[in-house]
Amino acid sequence: MECDRAVALLPRLIDDALWPFTRLRMNRHVAGCAACAGKLEELRAMQAAIRTNLPYHRAPPGLAARIGAALPREMAPRPLRPWFRMPAFGMAGTGLAGALAGVALTVLVLGGQPGMQSDVMQEVIGSHIRSLQADHLIDVQTSDQHTVKPWLSARLDVSPQVVELKDAGFPLVGGRMDYVDGHPAAVVVYRHAKHVINLFAWASSGKADATFHTEAQQGFNIVTWRHDGITYYAVSDVEADQLSEFAHLVAQGG
Question: Where does the pLDDT of residue 61 fall: very low under 50, low under 70, confident under 90, or very high at 90 and above?
Answer without folding.
Answer: low
